[in-house]
Amino acid sequence: MIPLEHVIGLSALLFAIGGVGALTRRNLIVILMSIELMLNAANLAFVGFARAWGGSAGQIFVLMVIVVAAAEVAVGLGIVIALFRNRESMNVEDVSLLKW
Amino acid sequence: MVTGGAHSELLRWIPLLPLAAAVLHGIILGLLRRESPRSFVIAVSCGAPILAFVVALLAFFQLTDLPAGQRVLIDEVYAWIGAGRIAAEMSFVFDPLSAVMCLVVTGVGSLIHIYSIGYMADDHRDDGGFQRFFCYLNLFTCAMLLLVLGDNLVVMFLGWEGVGLCSYLLIGFWYGDRWNAYCGMKAFVVNRIGDFGFLLGIFLVIWALSGSGTTTLNFREMQAAIATIAERSVEVPAWLPGAPSWHLATLIGLCLFLGAVGKSAQLPLYVWLPDAMAGPTPVSALIHAATMVTAGVYMVCRLSFLYAVAPGASATIAWVGAATALFAATIAVAQTDIKKVLAYSTVSQLGYMFLAAGCGAYSAAIFHLGTHAFFKALLFLGSGAVILAMHHEQDTDKMGGLRRWLPRTHAVFLIGVLAIAGFPPFAGFFSKDSILLATWGAAAIPGHRALWAIGLVTAVLTAFYMFRLHFRTFAGTCRAPEEVQRHIHEPAAVVLVPLYVLAFFAIFAGFAGFPDAYGEAIGVPEADSLAHWLQGVLRQQEPAVAFSTELGLAALAVAAAAAGALAAAWLYVWRPELPERIAARAGALYRLVREKYYVDEIYDALFVRPLVTLSDRVLFRGVDAGLIDGVFANGSARAVRGFAAHGLKYLQSGLAQGYLVTMVAGALALVAWLLR
Q1: What is the pTM assigned to this prediction?
Q2: Which of A87, B122, B290, B332 has its CA 20 to 30 A from that of B219?
């Protein structure tokens, strides 16, 4: 039986990696991937706690998160494709028209 | 003190009937936006006060059936205000005092309603004027009856404000002329000054009573708790006489009297009443002579138990009343507008009533209030008949010799003049005599003999200016243009009949207060039925005056009236060229009196114009437009806009990862705060 601390530790590690990736990388695809990593870190925490406390709510939440993440990726990739067609770029710093 | 009190559900109908008529007119005019046929208006509006009069008579007979000393009818309709320990019920009281007032208000009011049918017949404006007029008149009657019947100070105040509102509406009734609207506003504003005092008085009463554990404000409980009010005192500023402490009763009495000064047009707040003559003449008769302006006198008499323990307030009332009586009488001497003379005479007569009330002769005050209601309503309605005949000419300079065309109006007007001048056996003689007698004997008031002398001088002046008015209107030759003269004619019966009824009372109403002493002399016990009727309600202070003195005083009063009348006859009938020569000789003095001592101008310069300037320049342009609009509303918006445009907008960089950093930082800060 894997102790809860290990699950949480892995979850935190994945979350941090995803966060740093989302903050530092310029490629939009990589940023999307990093966000997915963060979501799954949260999922891991959910199932870890659900298992430790013997409830099913955490697992149900995970299913919800997976559905939302799928939709998010679909929309995100759609935006990336539309952007690439217009700008021929995947760099997030090139997309800063909406400002003062 | 009167104990007990029978319950009677009749009372609520007395104010409710005129209210229903007013509301009906209001719905038709205001909500349905149409005008009813005149016959309908007349039936509803004249029917309501007449029915109210009948109900009041029924209640009166119920009252007389009760044994003396228990004559109180009470009608508690519903609990109106309940807040903590303060409770004000919508309840009405019908005791001998409110019975007299109620009968005067509904009786004289009904006559004036009928008279108005004739007077307003030629009002053909397209704003529903005829119906609107009667709507206001009914509303006024309702408010006045609330004032008179109210069982506590709060209901009384409701009526007090209601009559003020109706007065405003009716003075400015012909609002097409800006001057009339201005006069209405003036009346309202001046009355507000007095009402402020009245309100303070009510608050003080509540404060005083809350100490004694009394929870309602009705007059009987106030009277029961008067001892606890009487022994309390309050600190006053050092510059006031009698500092450093006053009786609380004196302070309450003075605050409430300030309300009476405003409503009853006493010095120094009398200035609105002469200008109130801008309203239609029936309004002047009903509101500004017979009923509303006497509300102050009624209030003082209703609270006679309070004033009995407040000698300072009583003395003030007496002196203010006497000063007003003399002051207004001197102004009336030089006025040429027929209604202005009557207006100043009303102010003067109200001064008499306060003189009596201040001297503790409350029943004399109520007596004069009643007789004055009859003869002053008669004089006003008579002057209205003259004004109608002269096609809305009010200046006596353009009248004269009208007896030829208006013999009936002349006769009833003469009765009114004789009554107000105080010739026996007309009503004014008995009431004025009882006031002068009470003043002579009021040893508790400082300078009561001086007050009596002022009263006597005022009586001379009253007779003089009233006969002057009468001679200038009805005697001599007519000064109106030929064109106008050809159209002068006696008014319709609907105008004349109320005059006859009022004339009857102007002659005979005085016998209700036939002095006891005279009665004993001719073998009639308790001849002064009014005083005996009011005995239980009022804290009467009987003047101890010998019968011979009483006769002497009466003779002096008659001599004073005769002197005034003879002087007027000499100046305006026998030697008509004299007045102009006297006016020319005493030019400055004459102008001073004719221009009403320039009081309006002084008030204008001292209070009105500085206040208007203050409100326009400082309060409106400075505080409202400058501070509130400029700084608070627009200024704050402009500041936010400037800050956002030149600072905050740079936060929106367009870089998605910048936003992300902010978000993460915020989340981290939250986590750090939660884990602290």
Answers
A1: 0.81
A2: B290
